[in-house]
Design goal:
Elements (H helix, E strand, L loop, with lengths): L1 E5 L3 H13 L3 E5 L10 H6 L7 E5 L6 E5 L1 H12 L9 H28 L5 H22 L12 H10 L2 H4 L11 H11 L2 H8 L12 H7 L6
Parallel strand pairs: 1-2
Antiparallel strand pairs: 1-3, 3-4
Helix pairs in contact: 1-3, 1-6, 1-9, 4-5, 4-6, 5-8
């Protein structure tokens, strides 16, 4: 059984969706990042970078545990393990390109947009504008690509769709103040509604809903989430 180290945030949501789509057996291991549990020595053995998600699986050939961290690495690992959601061989280059577009662009810029709009001190207008404009640009790139397409890569559901779903599910938070955050991106909106309507997406959203995570944003939380600010 896969041990899935989880907090209810966009990157772990991607792994929840894959696990539910693939019907894999897994155990949720909560990591309350607001309490700093991602920095414990035990978790750092699994992910030296101290972030969720991470998984521990058993190597089928050796029977030994294998730790995998970073949501994109986990998606690639699970896709190769199961043979699912990899697309066709001729689409491999495009699949990797869009996965890395999400991993190095859409995801991090979304995270920074959220940080500077909600968590950073006031008065950082340049940073707020920088990350909002960049996430809008990334949305437009994806929206243009999705014109006339049902899925991001090829003609079938892949880990590229799973990866993008994780952050686009938080578009209302990323695009703070927008009544309809995807209104200017009709192709993304159509695509997202289609992916979000999948039965596995509904189950994925319920993962961890029975676990009580800390919600108070106090100094402990700030130190846990942004330790470099207190170094």
């Amino acid at each position: 059984m896969i041990r899935f180290y989880f907090h209810p945030t966009p990157n772990p949501a991607k792994i929840s969706l894959f696990l539910e789509e693939a019907g894999l057996d897994y155990e949720v291991v909560p990591v309350d990042t607001s309490k700093g549990q991602q920095h414990t020595p035990e978790f750092r053995e699994i992910n030296p970078n101290g972030k969720v998600p991470a998984i521990v699986d058993l190597d089928s050939s050796t029977g030994k545990p294998v730790a995998v961290f970073d949501s994109t690495a986990i998606l690639l690992y699970l896709a190769e393990k199961t043979g699912k959601f990899q697309g066709s061989p001729q689409d491999r280059g495009e699949l990797l390109s869009w996965l890395l577009f999400i991993a190095s662009g859409l995801g991090p810029f979304s995270g920074q947009a959220v940080h500077f709009q909600y968590a950073a001190p006031s008065g950082l207008d340049y940073a707020v504008n920088r990350y909002r404009r960049e996430i809008e640009r990334h949305y437009q790139v994806l929206d243009d690509h999705l014109a006339g397409r049902e899925f991001i890569v090829g003609n079938e559901f892949t880990i590229a769709d799973i990866s993008a779903w994780g952050w686009l599910g938080r578009a209302s938070r990323v695009m703070k103040g927008a009544e309809d955050p995807l209104a200017h991106y009709p192709n993304i909106k159509r695509w997202f509604q289609s992916i979000d309507a999948r039965p596995a997406a509904s189950r994925a959203r319920e993962v961890g809903s029975d676990i009580e995570f800390k919600k108070v944003n106090d100094e402990e939380t700030q130190r846990a989430l942004f330790p470099s600010n207190f170094a």
